[in-house]
């Protein structure tokens, strides 16, 4: 990749009904990429990758899905589902006046990217899918997120106590990923329970038959030794999607602590999706 450059960053918001969603834009131009966060995490988790892609000439947007980060957090589980999250991505494109985008995400964001394609396949230029949660992860996901949902619903003081302890810590005084963890702990019991209820009891991902019909360039990244996001799910998705490229991370933490290799692969993939807009010129060349 070219050397890291300063890129413009702008915060924006839009509404779906009465609910407000917040996003950040990085860079500019017509080659759009939307990046989505993991479950209960803020959009800021995608900031390092967003900056790396923007430095390569891509116009990147990170979005806080409803119930996450700085977007509104309704306490109604009926407003949360993977398909509803996919519709929110398309509402973001409508708000920005964008016809097409490469859409990608991590964990929850990976599954939402698949749902966004199902919702409007003609508007998806390509998919970047890191750690999808499919058939092989369902049991582990229920074991992890089921108790969290029950605690938020029936022991809300535990969520409030964790928030009270972690919220006052200045994010600028801790390492980046420690700050992301602190932001993830900053939950409201009612909305947290609603988000988890809507996800756990809804459709986790499009079925295999639908995944086999995905006809856009797809980059799938899997992690070894990750029980909640087993590499087997990522490998299965890569086999299902015609022409998909599967990349295995060296560890669960590679993209977080040594991102250069995966950043470069992702930037090259996104640029190929937008080849007609970007051509062969590299930013900074």
TrEMBL record:
This is Alpha/beta fold hydrolase. One of its GO terms (cellular component) is membrane. Keywords: Hydrolase. InterPro entries: AB_hydrolase_1 (IPR000073), AB_hydrolase_fold (IPR029058), AB_hydrolase_sf (IPR050266). The keyword Hydrolase applies. The keyword Hydrolase applies. One of its GO terms (molecular function) is hydrolase activity. Residues 32-138 form the AB hydrolase-1 domain.
